[in-house]
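We append the chain.
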Amino acid sequence: MSVETERRIEQGRRLAAEGAELLAGSGGGAGAEATAAEALAWTARTFGAEWIVASNMQDAVLIDLATRARPGVDVLFLETGYHFAETLGTRDAVASVYPLRIVEATASRTVAEQDADEGPRLFASNPDRCCALRKVEPLRRTLAGYRAWVTGVRRVEAPTRANTPLVTFDERHGLVKVNPLAAWSDDDMAHYIEENGVLVNPLVSAGYPSIGCQPCTSRPAPGADPRSGRWAGSTKTECGLHG
């Protein structure tokens, strides 16, 4: 590791600690967290243009908030080659409505090339490997150009996300990670969407509360965990982007 990289990582750890401390007490009341808008304002103030917002295009809540904090912000979209048409349509609609720049992260091989090298339907035979190739590696490569990334991860989404912090240092990628919506409930999301006319992927109203790649996403049973439709029938619960 170069001296410059070490310096950058150390600075990132310091900024993450400062941000976590600052935002932990800025929401009003003892121990209250900052609002999503406050967390994004801190991100824009601290990192200027050197941060990126990750979106799976399920809805544009985080994008709506982020573009208020910094018009023209970069938005990362992982183009896996397996998305629903509705997801791609939502991406295009978002790009036309909000002041932002879409940054598409693609795998080093096309789906056809991957099929030839790894065998067809890798998403079924080895979903962890497929996610690593089509999501995790392109994310790592793209994030290398930024000092911070912002995600829409929320604590209520899954037990694996229950302890999601508002601000942390992402050791895997070597940069600050901000989760402005960490404390938001499903009702909070629905209220913000209604009040602000936020774009939503049409698959949500069709019964898909958690949307990923088409081959690995199904409608959950009524009343089931919203993420139970992701990799249904397997023990896999995360794609590896968030640890």
User: Anything to note?
Assistant: The CA atoms of residues 40 and 234 lie 36 Å apart.
